[in-house]
Amino acid sequence: MAIKTRSYSVDGKRVMTIDEFKRWLKKFDEDKDGKISRDELADAVRVSGGWFARRKSKYGIRSVDGNGNGLVDDNEIKNLADFAEKHLNVRILHL
């Protein structure tokens, strides 16, 4: 399950809109609760070709989880998009 986007930037990062990013993340929401867990994020990191998926997902959840419940919900997706830009070789277009 690769990230399918419109293009790649000159620096090799995958380019997608925030809506495309949300749709892509939903594919990893195994329990369909509308939230992304650490394990689900690890799957996303792994599929996107990232190394150290467990470590990055643990750090990612800790970095973006504003309410401390251990999950990324709709209110925290922008924070996760920012994390993805820094650590997962993705560029998010904020249109």
UniProtKB/TrEMBL annotation:
InterPro entries: EF-hand-dom_pair (IPR011992), EF_Hand_1_Ca_BS (IPR018247), EF_hand_dom (IPR002048). The keyword Calcium applies. SUPFAM superfamilies: EF-hand (SSF47473). Keywords: Calcium. Residues 16-51 form the EF-hand domain. Pfam families: EF-hand_1 (PF00036). Gene3D superfamilies: EF-hand. The keyword Calcium applies. One of its GO terms (molecular function) is calcium ion binding. This is EF-hand domain-containing protein.
